[in-house]
Design brief:
Length: 359
């Protein structure tokens, strides 16, 4: 009798284990480091690619005055296993610019991120949307009456940490969503300073059964990710470092100098310095739009020459707020190089514009 009960118990435990970890579920393993880089917001300088002419005096406020167009920043970079070597991005990822690597998974998967902090400041990876315990939140804050500050995945300079996040149904596409949606991940030690420094990237979650082995949705031909944000270098982790390297007129209390440090870009690039937004006529193209920043970061991305679908609604302009995301589908039907920009007037003037190419 005892052996029979033991047998039944073993069967039940095995069954529960199968439910909790289905045979088709996979661990999606990433090796990501935070790295310091000298970032150039406008590598085309002195030419403005949008106009084909030299930057005007008004535009030079953002690319030449004060510190200029190059700042020390921090970005996420993907490595091979064991942090062996930095993974080089292929043509399909050229458009990502300053964004960290795409973290991909399907509903039912587990995401494992080995993180190394190669910067001079504490850093972390905090994910949106997915399921995590407190130890894998990537944010330090109080938990108890004693105001006991726990790290919860915050990593000191030179340190490492492994985050584990699960992808339940509530992390994937909803009933009105397409086959994949985007979330944001970012450092959350000093969140405004961390994200203004550049520590931000995308998570793409695909509906179970709608993906290939790399967790790319099967019903699209091209994917593009765009972060619309005003990087405020006055509030970056590296503000003082960049000030120390400034050779021009750099008074941090001067309003004109502060204005020159507001970099209005798409994926960390201004005035159409983006590369890689290239697709074929008739392709199924999916755009993931992300926002970040302050109260000035209300953005209205607009695509010339095409329309898109968002949850069944037809549009050519959408809106995005800080830390929000949108997923839209396009079928480009006219060849050409088309303007792609934020439609907020001040943001257009400051350089939040690019192009996409339909071949």
């Amino acid at each position: 009798m005892f052996l029979r009960k033991l047998c039944y118990l073993s069967i039940v435990i095995a069954f529960i284990g199968c439910i909790g970890n289905p045979a088709w579920a996979k661990s999606r393993v990433y090796w990501i480091a935070a790295e310091e880089v000298q970032w150039d917001y406008a590598p085309s300088f002195p030419i403005n690619p949008m106009s084909g002419n030299e930057f005007t005096e008004e535009q030079r406020v953002f690319v030449e005055q004060g510190i200029g167009r190059r700042y020390l920043k921090a970005v996420y970079k993907e490595y091979t296993e064991g942090f062996g070597a930095v993974k080089q991005r292929g043509p399909e990822e050229e458009h990502l610019g300053i964004l960290g690597p795409i973290i991909r998974a399907a509903v039912g998967d587990r995401i494992v991120v080995h993180f190394k902090n190669n910067t001079r400041f504490p850093a972390s990876i905090h994910p949106h949307g997915v399921l995590y315990t407190k130890a894998h939140e990537g944010a330090a804050h109080s938990h108890a009456a004693g105001d006991n500050h726990k790290p919860d995945g915050v990593v000191a300079p030179g340190g490492e940490y492994t985050y584990t996040w699960d992808v339940p149904e509530r992390a994937g596409p909803g009933p009105n969503d397409p086959s994949s949606i985007a979330w944001i991940y970012h450092s959350h030690v000093d969140e405004p300073a961390d994200t203004n420094a550049g520590l931000i990237g995308p998570i793409i979650i695909t509906k179970r059964g709608s993906e290939n082995g790399d967790r790319i949705p099967l019903d699209v031909d091209r994917e593009f990710i765009s972060l619309f944000t005003v990087f405020d270098e006055n509030a970056s982790l590296y503000r003082d470092v960049n000030l120390a390297a400034c050779s021009g007129s750099c008074d941090p209390e001067d309003e004109s100098f502060q204005e020159s440090n507001l970099m209005h870009g798409i994926n960390g690039l201004v005035y159409s310095n983006n590369q890689g937004y290239v697709m074929q006529k008739g392709q199924r193209v999916r755009w993931y739009i992300m926002g970040m920043g302050t109260e000035v970061d209300l953005h209205t991305p607009h695509w010339h020459g095409a329309t898109l679908l968002h949850n069944g609604n037809r549009l050519d302009v959408t809106e995005v707020l800080p830390a929000a995301t949108k997923t839209l589908d396009m079928r480009p039907d006219v060849q050409g190089v088309w303007m792609y920009h934020c439609h907020v007037n001040d943001h257009i003037s400051a350089g939040m514009m690019s192009t996409y190419t339909v071949e």
